[in-house]
Amino acid sequence: MTKQERAELLQNLLLNMATDGDADGSEYQQLRQEMLRDQRTRELLPRFVVTSRDLGQFWSFIKYKFSTYQERREYIWEQFRPLIDSLEGVRTASAPPDADIDSALAQYDAEHVFVAWQKALARRFDDPDGAITSARTLLESVCKHILDEAGVVYNDKMDLPKLYHLTAEQLNMAPSQHEEKIFKQILGGCKSVVEGLGALRNKLSDAHGKGKQGVKPAERHAALAVNLAGSMAAFFVSSWKERQAGAE
Q1: Cα–Cα distance between 194 and 200 in angstroms, integer?
Q2: Higher-scoring residue by pLDDT: 122, 237
């Protein structure tokens, strides 16, 4: 049985469980363990699979999250889509902006960059904390890949704004590299977006411990972070590929 077939079987087991059908608990546990042992599938596995050690735990989650069978089906399909699409090699997403970003990142020869994007997408609504962290990880990964390919030395512990500054210089995107007011304004805006993503993660996400009054991120915060990070990552990749093509 292929990985894709195992992923689809796992999805179907959960669909059956969520709609009062027959589901084999031991088969679920075996498939779950197989998926968790494989790095590629583990990173794209729905959060509720990671946290549900058996079907009883999954049922306790899904029965309160949605009251109708149709809502449960649509939710499970949506959460499994990044994993199954990745195993199929299909680069699709649920919204037009996502599809544009998919196209740009799928063409970049760095598999875990695309995995980071798919992981951020999958966590937007089910795990806002994790989605914000994944959004920043995506940008950091893209910056590091571009710097590696450009032969630029950097400290692996650099924060995102510093990585962005080095990357922007390689892409001729630093505001200081342009005289035209409009270009400086646009590129300054890009810098602000990156700095804002870093600040959002530090303020809201699971990157730092929270006190009693800690702010819990909402779905809209996660959607904002993921969409901004995806758009910026796609812009970086497209700009880098264009510069490489021009240098040939």
Answers
A1: 10
A2: 237
Domain residue ranges of the chain, discontinuous segments joined by +: 1-90, 91-248
Q: What is the pLDDT of residues 214-228, one digit of tens each?
A: 567 777 888 888 888
Can you give the pTM of this predicted structure? 0.57
Quickly list H helices, 109-159.
111-123, 128-150
51's CB contacts (< 8 A; 6+ apart) are 57, 61
Could you tell me which of 30, 13, 42 has the C-alpha nearest to residue 118? 42
Nearest Cα residue to 138 out of 184, 84, 180, 194: 194
DSSP letters for 43-64: HHS-HHHHH-SSHHHHHHHHHH
- Cβ-contact 132, 205 below 8 angstroms: yes
Q: What is residue 173's three-state secondary structure?
A: coil
**Distance, CA of 108 to CA of 230 (rounded, Å):** 13
Q: Where do runs of H (alpha helix) occur along 171-207?
A: 181-204
